[in-house]
Amino acid sequence: MRYALYIGCTIQAEQFGYEASVRETLPRLGVELVDMEGASCCGFPAFRSKSILGWLYLSARNLAIAEGLGLDVLPLCNGCHLSFIETKFTLEKDATLKGFINENLEREGLKYTGNVDVIHIIELLHDIIGVKKIGAAIERPLKGVQLATHPGCHAIRPSSLGRPDDAEYPQKLDDLVVALSAGTMDYPEKTDCCGSSLAMASGKTTLIIASEKLKAVKEYGFDGLVTTCPFCFKLFDSRQRAIQTAMSDRSLEVPVFYYTQILGLAMGVKPEKLGLELNLSPIDKILENIRGGDD
Amino acid sequence: MSENMERREVDVVTRTRNFVTLMLQRAVSEMAVEVCEQCGKCHASCPVSRHIESFNPRQLIAKVSLGRVEELLKSDVIWTCTSCLKCKERCPENISPYDVILILRNLAIRGGYDHPAEYDEFIDAVMEKGVLQQPQRVRTRSGERRDRASLGLPPAASPRDIKRFSEILRNIVRGGELV
C-alpha cells in the first residue's frame, strides 16, 4: 500500500498532532506514505467562494502531482478530500473544462488525466486496511473509555458525490473506535456540523453551534470526542476555552482526539510521538487511564 | 517572450472569460429544469437557520427563482452558510442551496459587493504563496511552543516555481472580471 500523502494547508501549518500521528501509525499498518513536493492549497472553500475555476485548477493541480508520482492520493482533511472528489467528478463530465485546466497546468509542467483515486483516511483504515488488522495491531486496548465519533460534514455529505460513509447513518469511525476496544454509541447530534466554516461571517454563532455538540457529548456521558477533520478538531479542541467563554459555561470540558492519535496510543506509541501535548482540551485524565500511569 | 507564446497567453485569458459565462449559463439552466417545491427541508436541516433568522435557504432559492439576485448579492446572507451540505443532501428535488450560494459568492466578489475580509486574506495568501498559511509555532497544553521540525515533521510543501504558479492562478481568476 503506497499513497501520495496530501497534508493540506491547515494541517501542515498548525495541526501537527494529526500529521505526526498519521506518519507514526499508518506505516505500522503497512502503508507507505510519499510526500507531495510542490503541493498547494486545494482551494476549498475560501478560494472557491471567489473563483470556481481557480478552485478547480488548484485541486486538479494537486491531483496532477499525485499522477506524476503514479500514486493514489490520501488527503488528510475532509474538506480537501471532498474538493478533490468533486473536481474529479466535474472534470470527468466536462472535457472542455478539463482541456482548459490542462492548458494551464501544462505551463507548470503538469498534466491532469483523472487516473488516480482519492482515498479518505476513514476509507483507508476501515475498508482497505480493515478493523481486523487494526485490532491485531493493538497492544494497549482502550477498555472502559467511551468515545463519541464526529466524522464531520465533508466526510459524509453529499452522498451524490460518493463519500466514505453514509450521510445519515455513518458507522465506520465507530467501528474503528471499537477496533481499539474503546466503547461508542450513536447520538442524535453525530452528523451535525461543528460550525467552523461560519467563523468568517459570525464567530459567535460558530461557538454556539460548536457548544451544542460539546454539551450533547457531555450529557450522554462520553469521555471524549474523536474526529478526522482538522477544522472540527481545531474548533472543538483548540477553541474549547473560547466556546466555554461564549456560553459562560466552564463545565463544557471534553477531551478531543484525532482518531490516529488514539490509534497510536492503543498501538503502544508514546504520546509525544503522536503530538498529544498539542491537544489543548483536557486529555490528561484519559491519557493516564489509557497508559496506566507508565512513561 | 516569443510572439507565439504571447499570443497563447492572450488566448488563455480570452477563453477563461468564455468559460465563466459558460459555467454561469450551466448553473442557471440546471436550476431551471428543477422545480423547488418550497418544502423547507433545507431550512429545517440547516444548523445556521436555527440561530440566525435572516438565513433561510428555502427563501434564498425562492429569491433566485424570482430573479431577485442583486438583493442577495448585497446581503450578508450568502456569507452565512457553514457549508455543512445538509441542504444539498436532503433536497428531494436535487437542488443545492449550497452550490447556489457558492455561485452567488463568486458573483458578489466579482461585482465588488461587501464580503467578510478574511476571504480576501485567504485568497491573497493562496495566490501569493500557494497555501492558506505558513507553518506556525503552535502552543502545547503546558504553554510551550512547537514547530514542525521539533516534532520530526518534514518541511511544509508549497509550489516550487511560485512566480509561475501565481501568474497562472491570477490569470484564471482574472478571467471572471468584466473588462
What are the main properties of this structure?
heterodimer, A: 295 residues, mainly alpha, three-stranded parallel β-sheet, 15 helices, globular, B: 179 residues, 8 helices, 2 strands, 54% helix
Task: Describe this structure as you would to a colleague.
The complex is a heterodimer of chains A (295) and B (179). Helix content of chain A is 48%, strand content 8%. Chain A has helices at 9-13, 16-25, 46-50, 52-69, 78-92, 95-106, 121-129, 131-136, 153-156, 172-178, 203-219, 230-238, 240-247, 259-267, 284-291; strands at 2-6, 32-35, 72-75, 147-150, 224-227, 256-258. Chain A has a three-stranded parallel beta sheet with strand order 2-1-3. The longest helix of chain A has 18 residues, at 52-69. Chain A is globular and about 55 Å long. Chain B has 179 residues and is mostly helical. Chain B has a two-stranded antiparallel ribbon. The two termini of chain B are 24 Å apart. The model of chain B has no long low-confidence stretch (mean pLDDT 85). At the A-B interface, helix 1, helix 2, helix 3, helix 4 and helix 6 of A face helix 1, helix 5, helix 6, helix 7 and strand 1 of B.
